[in-house]
Amino acid sequence: MPGPSTTLLFTDIEGSTRLATTLGKRFQGQLAEHHQVLRVAIEANQGTVDSIEGDSFFARFPSAASAVAAAAAGQRALSAVTWAGDPIRVRMGVHTAAPESDEYPEIARAARIMAAAHGGQVLLSDTTRAQVADLLPRGVRLHALGAYRLKDIAEPERLHQLELSGLPSAFPPLRALDVRRAHLPPEATAFFGRSEELAALDDLLGRRRLVTLTGPGGSGKTRLAIRTAAQVADRFADGAFFVSLAATTDRAKMTASIASAIGLPEDRNSSIAQVVLDWLEEREVLLLLDNLEQIKGVGDDVEGLLSAAPRLRVLSTSRAPLHVAGEQEFMVPPFQVPPAGADAPTLLASDAIALFVDRARLVRAQFAPSSDDLPVVAEIARRLDGLPLAIELAAAQARLLPVSAIRDRLVHRLDTVAGGPTTAPERQQSLRVAIGWSHDLLDGPERAVFRRLATFVGGWTYEAAEAVASGPPSGPVEATLERLTEQSLVQALSISTEPRLDMLATNSSTRVARRRRSPLDTARSSAALPSKPVLTWIARTPERGSIASRQILTTSALRSIEPMRAATSRPRS
Fold first, then answer.
1. Do 448 and 473 form a contact (C-beta atoms < 8 A)?
2. Bridge partners for 177 per DSSP
3. To pair with 437 at 20 to 30 A between CA atoms, which of 48, 59, 95, 356?
4. What is the spatial distance between Cα 14 and Cα 89, in angstroms, rounded to a whole number?
5. Which residues contact 82 (CB under 8 A, 6 or more apart)?
6. How far is CA 176 from CA 44, 148, 241, 441, in A?
7. Alpha carbon of residue 550 to chain centroid
C-alpha cells in the first residue's frame, strides 16, 4: 500500500439494474452525470480514482479526513442534482488500511463495508473513525452502529455512519449480520425449567414456518418464546426480532410495530406495510409476535407476511391459535408440582418451587425455606395450578408474610396474588387482572358458558356441560366448549372411559371475582351458587346426588340440591 496508510473509498449506485430498465437510454446520461459528480468530489479532496466498473468507483486517499470529505461532498452534490425519474442514490464505504498491510484483504474489507450500506448512506470502518473523529468538517458527525460480520471476513467490524446535515440519516438495518442477532428484551429475572418445551420448540422451528404458543394467562408464554428465540437466533442470517403487540387491538398497527422493532424508517414513496414487506422479502428472519389474542383478524396479516417473505419464520404467542394454514400450535403447560407427601429431594428439584424461592429472594434477600416450609411452598404452587405468573406474585408476599400465611390467604386466591412489578404490563401485576384480561376477550355466549361451567369442581363430562350450560344466550354448548378450549380457559383431562374437561382453579375463581355480571347471573349469590339448570339436572336423577357427584360441585351448591330435588320430583298437574 502506498504511504504509511491509505484510506479507500468504494461507491456504487443502489438499484442500478432497475434504474437502467426503467430509464432505458436515458440511464446512460444519468450515469455520465453521476460519474462527473463523483470524480470532481474525489479529485477535489486529494483522491485518486483507481478504477471505475459500470456504476462503481474505487478511489484512494492519503488520509482518512480527505476520504471522508470527498464522501460528504459527493453525497451533497448528488442530492442537489435534479434526476429524471427516480433519483440516483449512491452507497459508500470508507476504510483506512493499516500501514504495511496486505493490499487485497484491505480492499476487500472496504468493498464489503460499502456493500452493507444503503443508497445515500456512508459507512466508515473503526480505523477510519479513529483518525477522523476530531477532524470532521462542519455539518458532519458520526453515529456508531455497532459490530457486524462482513461476508468472507472472519472478525466482526465496528461500523459507523457519516451523518450530513440536511440529508437523510435514517436508513434500514445494514445489509450485514449484526453480531447481536437476537433483538430481544433482556431477561431481568432467572429463567427456570422448560427444558423439554425448549427442545420441542427448537425442533418445530426447524420444520414449521409458523409456531404459535398458546396457554392460559400467566403460563409463561412470553418468557418461553423469548428464550426460544434467543436459542435459535443464530440460525437466521438476518436475526430474530421481538414485536410486542399487547398494547394494541388494531390490526393496522401490527405492521408499524414490526417496522419499529426492526428499525425501518418511513418512506414517503411507500406505505409502511410495503416497506416491511420489501425488507422481509429478501431476508431470513425470525419474528416473535407477542400477544396476538386481542387483535381480531390478525391471522390474515400473519399469513400475508409468510406468503410475501419465503424465508420468514414466525413464533407467536396467543391465548388461542391463529387458524392460519400450516400453523403449528404449541400448548404451554403450567409447571408440574410435586404431589402432597413428596420427599425433600423431589421438592428441591421442582421448577415451581425453585421459581417461588428465587422470586421471594428478590423481595427478601435472606429468604431460605426450611424443610418444613418446602411442602407448604409446594401446596401454594398446587393451589395456583403451577402457573408461573401466579407463583411469582405469591412469592412477592414473602416480603412480609411467612409461607404458611401466604398459603392460608390463598382462600382468596385472586386477591392474594397481586403486587407484581409496576413496570410489567398491567395484566401481569395481579392474577385477577391476568385472568380478567382473558375473560374480557370472550363474547357474550362464551362468557355465559364459562361462568356456568365454573360451578363444577374437578371437571365435567360433555353430558353435564350440555345439561347445565345450554340455553340462551350460549346456544349449542359443544361449539362454545371448543372455543373455550382453544382460548386456554378450558382444558381436557386425561381420557379414560369418557372425555372430561376442566378449568384451572384460578380460572374458575374468576366467576366469583367478576363484579360485572350479565343479567343471567344476577340471581347468583356472591357465594358462587350454581344456576337453576345445574341443580335441576342433579335433582332429577337421584344417583347424581351421590358422593361422586358431590365431588364436582361447590359446597354451597350441595346445600341447594335437596330443596331442588323436592321441587322437581312433584307430580306435574
1. yes
2. 149
3. 356
4. 6
5. none
6. 31, 6, 15, 42
7. 43
Q: How many residues does the chain have?
A: 573
First to last CA, the chain: 112
Nearest to 162 by CA among 72, 223, 61: 72
Q: Which residues contact 102 (CB under 8 A, 6 or more apart)?
A: none
Cell numbers representing residue 274 in the block: 410495503
Q: What is the mean pLDDT of each run of 10 residues along the chain (573 residues)?
A: 76 92 89 96 96 95 95 96 88 90 88 95 95 88 87 85 92 79 84 92 95 89 93 86 88 90 81 90 92 89 94 94 94 92 92 94 92 94 88 88 89 53 51 56 76 73 75 69 70 64 59 39 38 54 43 42 40 38
* 157, 147 contact by CB (below 8 A): yes
* Rounded Cα–Cα distance for residues 231 and 225 (Å): 10
* Strand, coil or helix: 78: helix
Hey, how many other C-beta atoms are within 10 angstroms of the C-beta on 116? 22
Q: Record the pTM.
A: 0.61
Amino acid at 511: R
Measured distance CA(64)–CA(76) in Å, rounded: 18
Contacts with 416 (C-beta within 8 Å, 6 or more apart), sequence order: 394, 397, 406, 409, 410
CA distance linking residue 201 with residue 185, whole number of Å: 19
Report the phi/psi class of residue 108: left, alpha or beta, with left for phi > 0 and alpha for psi in -120 to 50. Answer: alpha
